[in-house]
Design a protein that fits this description.
Shape: elongated
Helix content: 25-40%
Number of helices: 4
Radius of gyration: 16 Å
Strand content: 35-45%
Order of helices and strands: EEHEEEEHHH
Length: about 110
Amino acid sequence: MAKKARFYKVITRNGYGEETHIVSSPKKSVIPNAFETQDVQVTHVEYLGFKEVNAKPNDELDDVEFVVPELNDLSIQRGETGFKNLSLLFAEQVSKVNQEIKKYNSDEWQN
């Protein structure tokens, strides 16, 4: 069972300036594909190392989110860059969290 994932600091630039992102990715070379468009360029990618990741229910108790304690409790939710990578890497934990959410939202739990 995986406990850690690779993380990168990514700096992008568009017509309004630079933005910094912290993302999980299986390898550095695929990161530009997640960000670059006609208007956005990746200007810097820095490897931050393997970081521990925890899967837990989100605040709405309707989906999983990933939290990275070593990166100031960085939260990665569905739709954000790196979520798919973490979902595949931590599939067993995601399954357990989804079971918890299903149980919590079931009539059995609320009675």
